[in-house]
Amino acid sequence: MAANCTIGNVEGENIAIEYRWAEGHDDRLANLAAELVRIKPDVIMTTGTPSTFAVKQATDTIPIIFMSSTIPTERGLVAGHSRPGGNITGFTVPGADFEGKRLELLKETVSGLSHVAMLWNAAHAASIPGWAAYYERVRATAATLGITVSVAAGIHQADAMIASEHPQAMFVLTDHQLKAHRMPIVQFAAMNRLPTMYPYRQYVDAGGLMSYAPSDATEVIMRLTGRDRQTSHLRLERSGPPPPFIEIAILLGKIPI
Length: 257
Fold this sequence. Notes:
Helix content: 25-40%
Largest sheet: 6 strands, mixed
CATH architecture of the largest domain: 3-Layer(aba) Sandwich
Distance between the termini: 36 Å
Order of helices and strands: HHEHEEHEHHEHEHHEHEHE
CATH superfamily of the largest domain: Response regulator
Number of domains: 2
Low-confidence stretches: 224-244
Structural class: alpha/beta
CATH topology of the largest domain: Rossmann fold
Radius of gyration: 19 Å
């Protein structure tokens, strides 16, 4: 990881990193969390609320750092922002309001934008507290911008909707399961010649047009560990402040005219 090299750590020499990925299948998370706990690492870092919950249920002794959560207290990850309690802490990221900003940037990028196809994971609206607010924020922002939003719960539904309604662009709502399938989503947008706003930079790395999001987790790790190379433990005293680095990523050569 680039951040480790920056602070003097070299994977395989003075630091070992074990990776686990559920490939968008949340039912695998409990077993993957148990695997990591059996290894007895010094710290476990997670991305996404479901994976953080899985690790939290697997251990109450190994320090856990979540890379992003919009409402960690409301979701029960931590007891409070100033004193998260237990063995878990991490970073909050902008919540539903961030979706509105993404839509504003897409409108500024695509000339004359008035109709957007929104791709989302409808299952999360019922299973994750507060998640429906993301969907509603896009709707509210679209109304103020004079944009019509057509909703699709997956690529197959989006294909039919695009054929019949002909939107000018696409907007992918924040969702870790959708991110796991980013390659077919990016390919779908390219095939339909739809300029698309994505919620994570990884989509742009895969060939997507643009994203607006907190910087990559490696930068967060660098901020966490880079201040004192001699620190041998992490103080779990605070959960909360959003990473002070938000970035817009644009794939050069794909800017719509």
